[in-house]
Design brief:
434 Repressor (Amino-terminal Domain), mainly alpha, single chain, two-stranded antiparallel ribbon, about 120 residues, 2 domains
Length: about 120
Amino acid sequence: MKEIERCDTHEVDYRGQCPICRHPEILATLYQRYEAAKKGIYRQPEPTFRTRIPWTPALGRRLRQIRERQGWTRHAFVREKKIANGTLFAAESGQSTFVLAGTLEKIAAALGVDVAALT
């Protein structure tokens, strides 16, 4: 096993070769983000798929109405559209207090409606 060495340029302990010297684009990208964040230009992008959307029984009833109006039973819908049965049941019955944005987008796309029609 190689000994731990120290890169005086980047003040990093490493074995073999300094990872920042080996991949200088990492440091450049991090530095650019740091400088932009100081100026208020760069913000970490908010994850849209994992964003929680508050869910109420009224929204669940709306989801069920749209699904049934299109002639889908819950079992056929989850099997055909590959949506978890538990997720759909929790959303429709009001047992869920929130739904992930990505899940809501997937359900809306499966129903062929806009997300705004569900909320």
